Structures are given as C-alpha cells and as structure tokens.
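Objective 1b. Sequence-to-structure analysis of Pentatricopeptide repeat-containing protein.
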Amino acid sequence: MLPRHRHGRRLLPTLRPLSTAATPTASCTSPPPIPFPDAACPSDADPASLPADDAIAALPSLADSAGSAAALALFRRLAARPDLRCLMRLYATAATTFVARGNLPMAHEAMRAMVAAFAAAGRLREAADMVLEMRSHGLPLCVETANWVLRVGLQHPACFPLAREVFDGMTRSGRVCPDERSFRALVLGCCREGRFEEADALLATMRQQRFSLDYTTCTVVVHAFCHQGRFKDVSELFRRMSEMGTPPNMVNYTAWIVGLCKKGYVKQAFHVLEEMVGKGLKPNVYTHTSLIHGLCKIGWTERAFRLFLKLVKSTSYKPNVHTYTVMIVGYCREGKLARAEMLLGRMVEQGLVPNTNTYSTLIDGHCKGGSFGHAFELMNKMKLEGFLPNIYTYNAIIGGFCRKGHIQEAYKVLRMATSQGLHLDKVTYTILITEHCKRGHIMYALELFSRMAENGCHPDIDTYTTVIAAYCQQRQMEQSQKLFDKCLAIGLVPTKQTYTSMIAGYCKVGKSTSALRMFEGMVQHGCLPDSITYGALISGLCEESRLEEARALYESMLDKHLVPCDVTCVTLAFEYCMKEKISIAVSMLDRLDKRQQAHTADALVRKLSTADNLDAASLFLKSVLDKHYTVDHVTYTSFINSCYNSNRYALASEISEKISKRISNFQKKDATAIA
C-alpha cells in the first residue's frame, strides 16, 4: 500500500508492484524553465516558504489562478527544499495537478525529479513504483521517463537490479519499447558492473534492431572488451559501426590502443594506429602517450623515447605532464635515473609544472636504487613547490626501505605520513605485511592484516596471497587453508600465485593428494598453471614416489608448450634413475631443446654421482652419449672422481674411452668437412 507520509494523508489508491503493463505513450518533452511570476504569489507570503503541507497544497491553487507554468516554477523551488525533496506527496500532487490540466510533459518532469531525488536517497524502488502507479491517474508511461529511471538507477551501483528490471519490463510490455538510448544506458551499466555476458546479449539485440552505438558507449564497450582480451571483437565492433554509418572516432581507436598496450600487445597497438591514420583520424597526445607507456612497460624504453622526441618536434601537439611522467617512469624502471632527472629538467624548461605523480615516480626510482638521501631531497623540493606528498609518495620510500631490509626506517616514514593526516592504503599494508612475512614475523603480519580491515581498508587477493604464502613457508597448512577458504567466501578470486603457494605448501608437508585437489580446482576455475605450479606439484609427487602421476603432469606441461625448469626435469629423471628406469629418464630429454638437454644431463649425472649411484649415473651417461647428447667437462670430471673414490677404476676407464672415441669421431668429421 501507499505508505502514510508524516502528514498522515493518503494521496493515491494502493500502489501496484513494478509490472510490465503500460498505457499508450505520451510526449515527454519538458517545457523550458519559467520564472515564478510575482503576480501569482499572495502579497503576504511566498508559497515556497510556507510549511510543507501548505506549500504542497498551494500547487493546485496556483495552477488554477496563474496557470500550469507558474505551478511548475513553484514545484521546482519546492523540490529543492531539503524537507520536501524526498516527500512523495509533493511529486504526486504536482503530477496529478498537471495531468488534470492536460500538461503531461510537466507531469513527467515532476516524475523525473522524483526519481532523481529518491535514487540519491537510496529509495529508487518507491519512485519507480510511483511512476507506474501514475498510469492509473492519467499519466501514461513514456520511453523518456522509463529511460530516466534506467539512467538514474545505473548511476547508483546498488540500484542496478532495479534498472535492469525496468528495462526488461519495457521489453516485455511491447507498448513502451526501449529505444537506442535505453540500450546504450544498460550496456554502459553492464560494462561498469562487470556483467560482460549481459552486455554481449544487449549488443546482439541492438544489431538485430539496427540500433547504433554512440561514441561514448563505444569507448566503454572497447575498454570492456580489452579488459577481457577480446581484441578481435573490437575490430568486429568497429566494422559494424562503420556499416551503420557511425564509424569509430579517434577516442574509440585510442581506447583500443590503450587496451592493447595495457596487455603488452604493443606491436598490435601500432597496427591499430596505422589503421586509424589510414582512415583520416589524427592521433592526439593521449594516443601517443599510451603508446609510449606501452613501450616502456615491455622494456623498449629507447623506442619509447624516439616516439617521445617526435612529439617534442611536432607542430601539432606537444608532450604534456602525463607524457613526461610516463617517460620518467620508463627510465626509473630501468634504473636510468640520470635520464629521468634530465627529463624532469627539460619538462620545467618547457614551462610544464611537475605534479605529485611525477615527483613520486622519481622518488620511487631513487628508493629502488638505494638513494634515499636524494629521495628525501626530492620530497622536500616538491613541498617547496606546493605539492604535498601523498600516500603513494610515502609508499615508494616505505617500499624502498623494506626492500633493503630497513624495516625500522620504514616505520619512521610511516609515522611521518600519518602525522600529516594521511591514511594507509592497501599498498602500504601489503608492503609491511610482505616484509614481516619474509622475516618470518607471522604474528606482526597478522596484526597488520587485522588492523587493515578494521580501518576500512579491506585486503585484496594480493594481500591474502602474501599471508597464505607465509603460512605455507612455515608449513602451517591448516591456517593457510582457512585463509584460502575465506578468500572464496568473501568473493575474492585466487590468483596463480595463490594456488601455487597452496600447492607448494601441501607438497612440503607430504600431502600431495591435497595439492592435486588444489591443482584441479585451479584449472576448473580457469586459472592457468605455469611451469612453477607444475614444478612444485611434480616435486611433491616425486617425494612420495608417485612417479607415473608426476610424469603425466610433466607430459601435460610440455603439451601446453610450457618450458619446465631444470630442477623439475632433474628431479623427475633422478627418481626414475634411482628406480633403474634409465630409458624413461633418457626419453624425458627428447622433448627438450638442446640447451635444456645439456643442462639436465649434466645436472643429473652430477647428482647421481654425488649420491654414489655410479651404476645409474654410468647407464644414463652411456645412453646420453649414444644419443649424441653432450656433457661438459665439469660433469665428466665429477663422475670420474666419484669412480676413483669408490675404486670403480674399470667403470671410469670405460666411460673415458667412450668419450675419447666420441671426441675422435667429431675431429674426423671436422677434418672431412674442412677438406
């Protein structure tokens, strides 16, 4: 039922719930603002300043005496009053007043004002119900008002479900059909909420109905596609836009370039730039800055600098503060601080003022290089120039001290930051938690972890992973499993590092079955294991002599074109050699490249020799030599010395003779080749 408002009156019949039924559409064009006419106002009082009941009651009277325009002007003033802004009776009275006089556009304006006010107060559902209730009072729903509910709802993340419900109601009713603006608004909302499958379905429907995207929506969709790595879909989207007469503009192309650079696909980004220029679109400084950032990110700093110089020499546009900062970041990442300082000087010469981000970047670079004195000089300089260090600036210094193991100095800087009213962020907490975990101070790390949540700075998956890894290092798998389960419970998505830490931890304590379950869960959730993940699990299975399972994982890793580390190869091959299954150990080398074949063979022979398993070492060495693999001098010497120490002179002589013959055959081949 319509709730009783604080004045105790019910204005309208019982409200119906949000439904799909609609009455015929009416025009919703809003009239221009009209000033409140002085003649319409009683001489002794301004209706807008009256008590709530009297002010609302003045609306119909004013409409009768001075017309709907005067009533609308009064309504606008009343709707701005804090005590009336969220009073349903105001909007219902205004709408019914305008409907009674045939001014439907004014009535719809009242409804839209109500939607905006109630949405800001978290009461959008009430407003949407009232919009639909007004149909029974002569105000038919129109697409403009429905779109207003949709757009306002999408501005408030908590109201997304209701906005979606309004859109679906429009779609089902068939009387008030969503238009291009309806679809665009919901596509934007879905992308912002991360509901990419829903956005795809909406885009497909738009194509069927020949609705086009505007440039703003296109940019958001491009960002969403790039975030998912769906770069081919961006190309298809641009093609369809061109077919429908709205070809993508420079901003849309730049969004594509930004997305590619963020994922490290810089070469492809330059191809997109060529396509963009080929269509007559001129890249701006932001386009070039994105490319410079991408080049620096993959370590091609000198190429980035050449592009930067083109901007400097350009007559169309010049590098801005952001461009300089990006280039400085690139040089700092490579430890080229002299060049970074040179760019800072050049920036000032060009009349650009370095901002907090520029200084923080340089400070971070000096801290990584251990030049803390220079870092503090820069911080003082930025203060003198009117730029206060922010938490990112302090994080750079705190992180630098922690990397050098000076945790007490890090805490001194932390106190400086808090004394200036700055609040610790996730990065600050994670830096300190990581350092305490490295030192084995798990209790200190947990204390920071708890304080982090108490201060409203909720740990992300990286912070959880740091603590989980620390527990795993200390073989406290029960605690690490509890934290892992908590991550899932609160909706955090474990990363590759999270899973790998858990797998390695279970293998350390001899629970390879639990490690295998964790590995299976990792794959099921779409998190792809890397060679480190495989290596940890293979080592754990080898420790428990589960060689066939370990070998199956090894083969699976190679099938996925992952390169196993030398330790993984040697560990598995060593266990097979110890079981006198030399042929399997040798066959493992066949799928490796020549460099890894040589490294694995050398390491395995040395490990077998050290373990005094000379029979297995000799069999493996013979098999390796028969396959024309090479062993280095250190490996050969290690084996021969082990034979002498064990009085296995005949075995030493046999292997020496085999190697000598092989060397002689190589020399003959070389001589023949020269002749």
